[in-house]
């Protein structure tokens, strides 16, 4: 209508100029990126010669970070969809115990045990979601109930069936199983052998394995973590469903009125979170060979912490999977770094708390700049 | 017949060491024809445990078998229970002297500090001068006492050699590796039970120190037994939890039925399990051993 | 216009109770394609509740809804949207933290194919959003801007142009002009006029008699959960309409003191 | 009226930036006791932002505010309220889960003494609330009802009658009539007229020229964060005002097709 | 205006009639009341002869409930003000440890140790609140950080000072202290003596205390619980400040615009929560005589559960102290009752989860009826 519409959409006198560089910086992941740089700088300066950055040391914190990443991806998407899940930790214990019961006590082939476990756990995730969506209760409460219920079952089942709360022998049962290898093995063993022969990474010089490379492959856990991060990131930012996730978390009422199937989105995200927890659990039992009733305690908090450090909003509708992955990396590096740096270990929790606080304050300020809140 | 006993422990829900005790009291209950219940504070909070003892006393059993994880906290409820006519046997943690002060019938168990001390002395004889204690439940005083005893047995300061490892196996494993790579001259490792021993075994295997470093542990389990057999673990301290669960039930039943009771306290441990004396142990590790 | 074609929506004897509150006590209205049907009435008369039963947000407690002659039973807004009923609610349907273009296409995301995968087409979405907003007289700084940073009227405009863009058979607007400036209001009224001419049925709720008279073909007045009847354009003067909207209560005293300016 | 007394609020060269957005680029306005000052302008012109700096919600980025001749520096709305500035915000200040009477007295709770203790006087609060609402033409079912169950217009009425009840020196109303029915609008305009006559300064934001002309003494038009100037009543015709409000853009095409009904 | 205003405000044709009885029932506490009746009926039927309703048994679950009540009152007011505090459990451990360090290790008089502990803990509460208010971060994250920080300090301090994680001897140190008696003693001993003499309650029949009544007084913990409940209830429903608490939780922005000092209200509520946690801690150390690093684990969840069972809304702005107290009672009775009723103890958590879920679903439906949401 008229020439008014031509009024310079590109040049607006009401907007201060921002350099493209600064604009490129302003993204939800920024907090995570800054944090990662800070953390690495810190440990490179203060713990460089502690073995933290030897090939073995790198593998050490990578594995811990990968663990956090696996559950953080699920927690991140769920949090963006506006809910969270306190039953992740209990789900980890429960899933591990199911695999052990099916695969060891009941003697099923490992692939069957794993598949049935996935089916059961994802169904429980769906149940969680269904209750939340159906009753409109806060997910805090519903999943808190499941935290207790699943942990109770994880203690009760093996106790009744096997008369103990640790079931071992899973590694033997999984020997040669095709699906088990997807969770428990290592890849690229040959590459590391070659690197060791070429003198690029160290070899053991004492003990039973003298002569072997100190790092003999990349654990499947790390592969899973990277795969889940890529999947989550593409889903969230590049698909229609990703837009629905943001919408469901941002304002469920508005999203529903606009035709987004909010209930379906939320239930699917609960299922995905349960899936990630199960991946975590199965990688763990495959590596350690046993399932215990105390596995996964407090993991729900660690997942939430990683996600929040990574810049997501606890109230939903805002966040990024890459950020969550960086949050997990920061969390893992800090945790292991403190041990490499020989910090009094009972102070570990104090540091954890302080870093968490610092990271979220940094993030909030970054988000405020993005949305121009102030 | 049909006497009712309650066993109260201080362990959190998922502590697998207590399985043996649960199995032992089930067996003893069956053999003696009595009913034995197991109770514990879900998070291991000793103040909650005191409430459970009070509750157990109020439910009017014939006897209570309890640990004495914190003398200060538990003395009053135990005294009250004794005063209201319930017989009490102290098991696992505590000392015979404390048991007597509270008016309990007897004490069956292994004083934690003494066990640690004995282990420390043994290690000192083997020429150890520095160690790492992997504590998976740092907030539980009884476990820290084991580390303290070990340090005292070696005659060194505990200092920062006690590692707060948490209970996640991957984290325990990687923290142990991180500690060892930051302190490569550590001579010995002490773990406090299967929860910390199993991942530590993997850690040592992965960083190549398995068999090289002096490794001792408390309590037994599948993996620990394998470790002792293969020589990675020098010794395991067996405090024979089976006896700690089984004997109080048997003693108490016989006391109630025939008025007989041993004149002394029973020290169920410490017994050192080494590669030489593993046979039955292997079969029943984690279940009755 | 209207009565010689078949109605696209027939609502008969609609009742809606919220707990102990009777919001609608049997309201019947027909909507015809190509007409602008104005819904008028006092605050709390039940207008929003009425159109929410039409757009699948509320399930009526009683009564019957026929859509294109068939009984319809929407269980959620998505059903209504795919049947061709687009609604701009009084309390907006925008997500403050999401960008304008993500909001614009919410529920109707454009997709681009990459082999077997389908991805959200951000480039297209941004372009369309900027264009549509400019057409309504709002120059966005960027389609990536979060909706939360827009003024109330700007948000309202996004909601309206979204509903119009995804051209439906029935367009429901609940007080769309209440927060709008003069220019934006003119644009909205012009838009209503345009889509009506394309054969879309428009349901238009307003408190402003002049806005209603400008575009309305038929006028239904609600009062305390009941309808006071429907009038055709030309059958009723603005003054009569105004009187009806006020629920037939005495306005003389006020009108005198303010000179008929309301 | 107005210019021969001293202004109660003088705002000069107010600027407000949100991040990279310049919402106000130097706006100067004086408010006099006993006058109704209308603030008009396009969507996003910065009206809400401007009155928020006046009521202590935002701290201006630049510029100066004088209240009764003294430089004022409100750090929070509470300061403004106790200085005598009552505001009805565009996005309401009501708590949905709380009862109407608790909302009505929020921040101004009536108290009853019991010895040394002071308690909230619920009986009194309920009575006053019912009375005030009835005076605005809304019959509440009960003062205990949660605000969340009221219709949009009903809530707006609670907010306005609350501001009026706690009679201040300055009453700021941000688009108070946008969601209101005809009768309620008439009541609000009559109320503005009444409090103005009692010597209260009223700042009235609206998009409706007729409402503005009905009660306004002076008219300030904002456009894109700047003021286009202030006019006295009688110095300007509704048509001129309408033109200014639309930001001086061409409305001819529209006006023709709609017949000047906007 | 005119006669229209007379239009029958008392008789509205748009409101269905509700009987006054039903109307009286519809209140936030209703869920708690129904739950309490249900729970007592259940245990009276199934555990009557287990000793649960003997004088000793009653004292047992009363004390446990009173414990929950003390922290639930604080958590309830804080939750209504729109925030919550995950550091309650760690605060309990920390406060107890402080008293022990000041009173035993450093040998201060007990009243001084208690007062300084209160001062420190309430200050930490204020710090919590200040960070939440200042940064606008969700309290979940801020108090989660303090959960770790305080627990870490609770382990670190005694470890460094005393080389152990448990400090005993507090009872001896508190002997005869006037302030200590306010937390540790028992009242109405004479009454119980008299009741025992009258044969209304049992006496010990052997041991050192033979002849004394089995219940020899009401512990100060119960007195504190009742006092806090009355205080909280009056504050919330009968005062101006109570209205502010509701307003701050319901919509902080709106409350602030209406002149409610939201920041002050929230910070005060954080301080009150810390105060309640400290009361809990001090009653505990006075009764048991020692402070341990494991005290209070997971108590934050228990407080939140009690409050939510009692009908408060997790998102703030709605709830009742009486409801929270009933929630604590239900929680305490169920927990101890399950032991009395001889339920397999590993199933305890499963029950807890199921009851929690059932209680909140009941409550939500009641609230929906009140607000007429559907
Ligand atoms: N969810 C609900 N719960 C209870 N009562 C409700 C609910 N929604 C609406 N009401 C009541 O129903 C009546 C009609 O409300 P509605 O929002 O439909 O009015 P309206 O005609 O749109 O008014 P306005 O012009 O002010 O927007 C009002 O009295 C309102 O209080
Ligand atoms: N918190 C904020 N952050 C960023 N930008 C803002 C914020 N609040 C307002 N703005 C911007 O400032 C400008 C002025 O907004 P304001 O709400 O004052 O307009 P208005 O004149 O009240 O418009 P309307 O008539 O639509 O209510 C708008 O462009 C808006 O996008
Ligand atoms: Mg409406
Ligand atoms: Mg505005």
UniProtKB/TrEMBL annotation, chains A, E:
It holds the Pfam family BPD_transp_2. InterPro entries: ABC_transp_permease (IPR001851). It is a multi-pass membrane protein. It comes from the Bacteria. Part of the binding-protein-dependent transport system for D-xylose. Probably responsible for the translocation of the substrate across the membrane. The keyword DNA damage does not apply. One of its GO terms (molecular function) is transmembrane transporter activity. PANTHER family: ABC TRANSPORTER PERMEASE PROTEIN YPHD-RELATED-RELATED, XYLOSE TRANSPORT SYSTEM PERMEASE PROTEIN XYLH. The keyword Transmembrane helix applies. GO terms for cellular component: plasma membrane. This is Xylose transport system permease protein XylH. The chain crosses the membrane at residues 30-48, 60-80, 86-104, 111-131, 137-157, 214-236, 267-289, 301-334, 346-366.
From TrEMBL, chains C, D:
Residues 9-249 form the ABC transporter domain. Signal peptide: none annotated. It comes from Paracoccus jeotgali. The keyword Cell membrane does not apply. Keywords: ATP-binding, Nucleotide-binding. This is ABC transporter ATP-binding protein. PROSITE patterns: ABC_TRANSPORTER_2. GO terms for molecular function: ATP binding; ATP hydrolysis activity. PANTHER family: CARBOHYDRATE TRANSPORT ATP-BINDING PROTEIN MG119-RELATED, SUGAR ABC TRANSPORTER ATP-BINDING PROTEIN. The lineage of its organism: Bacteria, Pseudomonadati, Pseudomonadota, Alphaproteobacteria, Rhodobacterales.
